[in-house]
Each structure stands twice: as structure tokens, then as C-alpha cells.
Amino acid sequence: MVRSDQLSGFDRTKVLNSDGCKQEFMRTARGSPRSESTLPRSRKDRIIPVAPIDRLIRKAGAGRVSDKGAEKLASILEEVGEFIAHRAFELTEHTGRKTITDKDIELAYKQWGKPK
Questions:
Q1: How many domains does the chain have?
Q2: Which of 31, 39, 47, 69 sits most deeply, having the most CB atoms within 10 A of its CB?
Q3: Cα-flanking dihedrals φ and ψ of residue 29, to 5°?
Q4: Are 34 and 62 contained in the same domain?
């Protein structure tokens, strides 16, 4: 559960519901109630932001893009990027260097679709 000091622009409010049980709501800076399930997703688990992916899909010709569609493409691109980065790191280690260059990335990208 998220503490109120971790949320910018949100305050926790405890209210008694009709059953007499305490229920917590988030209140935005304007004071409108908001449940925890509708809070913005944490960006901790995302490397690539969704907004640029949304623009990328629209640039490809799509008129409308769902949030889940953009998030899925972002996660796929992260997986591909991690693979290419790891392979480029292996190539760099193999040649005895510490710095990954653009040529290492290009070679790793060329090897991406091929089995090892």
C-alpha cells in the first residue's frame, strides 16, 4: 500500500461506509475522491514511457490506440532492447573492451533474429 507522503497531489481520507467499516479514498489536489485502483501506474517497472510509444503507433497510421496496446508494445520493445543490449555487452567483453559502441549495437541487432 502506498503512503500519503509518496503521492504528490493526493491525500488519504478515511471514511465510514454504510456498513460502519473504515474505507480509504484518495483525494486529488482539487478534493475529488479517487480510489486506489484508478491511481496512475507506477513508472518504476517501465523503462520506456508509454506516451512516445503511443505517438509511434499513431505515426504508423493508427487513428486510435488503447492504453493496453501501447503498454504491450512498450514491454515488447523493452524485451528486444534488453536482448540487444545484453548481446552487445557480450560482444564488447569478448573483444576485451568496456565501452559498448554503435557497431556493437548494430552487430547485436543483426544477430537478434538468428539463433545462437
A1: 2
A2: 69
A3: -60, -30
A4: no
Sheet holding 11-16, edge to edge: 11-16, 22-27, 33-34
Q: Quick one: CA dihedral 17, 21, 22, 23, positive or negative?
A: negative
Q: Domain range holding 78?
A: 50-112
**pLDDT tens, per residue, the chain with 116 residues:** 444 444 444 445 555 555 555 555 445 455 544 444 443 445 567 788 899 999 999 999 998 999 999 999 999 999 999 999 999 999 999 999 999 999 999 999 999 886 65
Q: Are residues 55 and 92 in the same domain?
A: yes
Contact 70, 78 (CB under 8 A): no
9 plus 55 within the same structural domain: no
